Amino acid sequence: MNLPYIVGNWKMNGLRATLAEARAIDRAAARYPKVEMALAPPATLISRMREVVQTIDVGGQDCHVAENGAYTGDISAAMLKDAGAEFAIVGHSERRQSYGESDETVRAKATSALDAGLSVIVCVGETEAQRDAGEALNIVTAQVAASVPQGDDIAPRLSLAYEPVWAIGTGRVPSVDDVEAMHRAIRETLVAAYGKPGKDVRILYGGSVKPDNAAELLSADEVGGALVGGASLTAESFIGIVEAVSPAEAE
Ligand code: PGA
User: With 184 labelled, which of 122, 153, 201, 205 sits at a CA distance of 20 to 30 A?
Assistant: First the structure.
């Protein structure tokens, strides 16, 4: 049985001084043995964060498909690993939208992350127009089928993150029923892709997760954790989410 996995995505936020928040989260993590926590800071902070935390995982927010080469400004999965990362997020909707990343590219990135020895969080989600048109389930399950890496023994190092594009950074969240329907459909797609091991892949919910809605969203069937943007930037709100999911144990 997987423990709930709460992952913070700092996006393009964080300077060295912000590592104090990561330290505080890491210190607090000792009181939450029933939750796994991770942070994905900007690439500039990965190795420094890795040096100051003990309990939480540290990861990258993206990686290039290639291992190395003439790709100015890009970072490979091997470089993330070398910097101390344990995982990479790929296919976030901000990358799909701003950099035109296709499912095919996302799959290639996920594969290169696994090849480098990282675990991977593959993000999917529908736009508001797609939801309004009643296409959300079809769009998202097709994204999952085309974005997850192929092969055996992948499931244990794979997580999915369902993040409706219209819920990211907006304060709006889907109903618990809609989250459940989507997560169940994603589960079926993962089992179709991987067979029995697909049952154990964590499916995270992301999009405006906050301390006051986390308990409800994470109690939904097939929700194995959360990918948190804005509320992961301070220890107070990040740990507020963790506390809502599984209250602290006495020291
Ligand atoms: P948010 O971002 O929590 O700020 O909505 C979530 C995400 O983009 O992963």
Answer: 153
